[in-house]
Structures are given as C-alpha cells and as structure tokens.
C-alpha cells in the first residue's frame, strides 16, 4: 500500500511539473522547439543544466524571489534600446547597453505577432522594449518588433521576441540559460545558443 501511494505521488508530481513547464504554451498553439530558430550547438542542454541555471518551473522561479531590480529597467522605461555582443563561456551572445543578457523563449513562434510569454511569465521574463529600432553593435540578426499586451514595442531578432531574466542582476550573467529547457541566450547572428555557458 505504501508503494502504491508513493507511485501515485510520483506520478502526480511529474504531471504537475509538466503542467508548469507549459509557461505560455496555451497561446499561439506553438509546440516546444518546432518553430524556434536554428540552434548553433544542437540540443545539448540537459536537466542538470536547467537545474543549475535556477530552474524550478518554466518561469525559472526556483521557489525564491528576486529583489525585482535588474538591468531591464532602462529598456522598459522607453526610448531606444542598444544591443551589442559580449563573450560568455566562449560564446558571443547578445546583451543590452548595460551588459544585461537577452533570451529567446522556445515556445514563441518565429514570425508570430504576439509573445507566448504571458501572465506570471512576463514578471520573471520581462520583454526587451524599445520605442524605436534598437542601435546595434556587432549584431547581424534581423531586428523587428511585436506589440506587447500594453501596446509597447517588444524587440524581435530574426522574428523571435527577446526577453530579460529577472534573476540576472549584473552584466554578463546568464542565470536564465536553459531554464526549464525553454529559455536560451541569443548569438550575434540571432541563433539560439543551447549549450552550457559556464
């Protein structure tokens, strides 16, 4: 009887984890990875790297809260964003003018007009906002934008919306890399980098 209860509890836990991993998956009907841009390193992420990156659920909350202060404030306040590159873990990735890392969400569909990150997802993964086309330095990706639910312009690279991670509190941090197996940094050419960076 105890084995049966443990088995039921394990099955319930697995089902709950799968449900949480659906962060925004209900909007747009996209499936994980089916419409995402080409990866520069294949699908080499693992559950271990997801856990090491602070994942708990698809939002990456991991059960702890952040102070809410991050480098994303300047781009969210309006004006034009600046995107440039930096090297982390041997990979050239895209960051903003303050060095804050930007990420792709694999549940977004390339070319979609709305983000798949909604509700609680937006609080932990705020969109990169710019009132005008961002200034680019060393980036060859195609820049565009989509509208957020509140009417702001969310920056896109190669047709995919980009985001900050609230747990990145300083320049060059990549705490969001591989969170829940759906959040990845962006290469200078707009490819999704799925390899570990630390």
TrEMBL record:
Residues 1-21 form the signal peptide. PROSITE patterns: PROKAR_LIPOPROTEIN. InterPro entries: Lipoprotein_repeat (IPR005297). Transmembrane segments: none annotated. It comes from Sinomonas flava. The lineage of its organism: Bacteria, Bacillati, Actinomycetota, Actinomycetes, Micrococcales. Keywords: Signal. This is Lipoprotein with Yx(FWY)xxD motif. Residues 23-81 are annotated as: Disordered.
